[in-house]
Predict the structure.
Amino acid sequence: GLITPSLDEMTHVAKEMQRLGFTTPLLIGGATTSKVHTAVKIAPHYKSPVVYVPDASRAVGVASALLSDEQGPAYTAEISTEYEGIRVQHAGKQARTAYVSIEGARNNAMPTDWTTVTPPRPSLMGLRAFDDYPLEELVPRIDWSPFFLAWELVGVYPAILEDPVVGKEATKLFHDAQEMLHRMVAERWVTARAVIGFFPANRVGDDIELYADDSRTQVLSTLHCLRQQMQKPPGRPNQCLADLVAPKESGVADYVGGFAVTTGHGLEQIAQGFEAQHDDYNSILAKALADRLAEAFAEHMHERVRKEFWGYQPDEALDNEDLIKEKYVGIRPAPGYPACPDHTEKGLLFELLDAPKQAGITLTESFAMLPTAAVSGFYFSHPQSAYFGLGKIARDQVKDYAQRKGWTLEEAERWLAPNLGYEPGA
């Protein structure tokens, strides 16, 4: 599953448990959940105990407390009181957040004088697939800090190896990872595949039209973007990805790219081989390394795009640390992430790229990618482009977005649930 659909599914499950008369306590956990989300979004829909468990290792203690005749009632009452307090605090915070209307936010868009800007035309137009990309070229682009975080070892690489608390464990893990990575590359445990594409594009309102060719007469697809709606201080724009593309009425020819990369082909057999030997550690290690290689592939391919396939930064000379710090020109935001949190836009991207055929990557009904060691997104070249988070948005934009997507308001609220600055139905 993925963040947005999974969180929404948790609420749905709680409602169904209540409808069917369940009394079993419901424990909520996972990397994307939180105590606030549990208290605000899930617990109100289920009368029996709902408890947020931050780490799987604590589940036994929570279950023991709930099952205890002595501790149970007091523990349940304590949780109930704490969660009610969280709901009150959350409601107060929501009420204090100032929003502007969607029209007001659009009037405060990121300014670009398109009479002075000539967007670069990509050297490559249309699609290009890569069927068996050399893994050796991806290894130097690995960002190791998230690797340690996946094992709940918090710190920045390489300093984490000297950390007084987790350094010893991190060093052992890193040694094991290096050994496996060497084998993974040398023995071709996984196959790297990718597809990239570039399309003529122009902005229409908060949408981006992509065209079949430079005549710009046939619309291939329309990407739907969302705009920050919180009240901004003077001089700070309400950002939207569409602002990075020249408006149609300007007559300026602009372009947008897309990509989907994976280093997951073959991984499942490797992981299953370890699991068949009851070796969960190496199974998880292999999956974590494949994820790191996929992210490295996305980084490496974006570098080639800037220097070669789009070619707007042919002389770029950044080291890996600079790339990790995103010191390059242009961005590659992904559907489901802060700037464009709607996962369903990934469906449009995959159609454009013909990703299942070109790279062997498919989407589940909740828009998770298979193989899971995969990264996809859009390429923007605007010199002022920077990553940003959408934040919370108001009902008027959600209605507008639903209309643009051909959705009901309820569908839009479901897919944008974490970004709603209001309670649906309220």
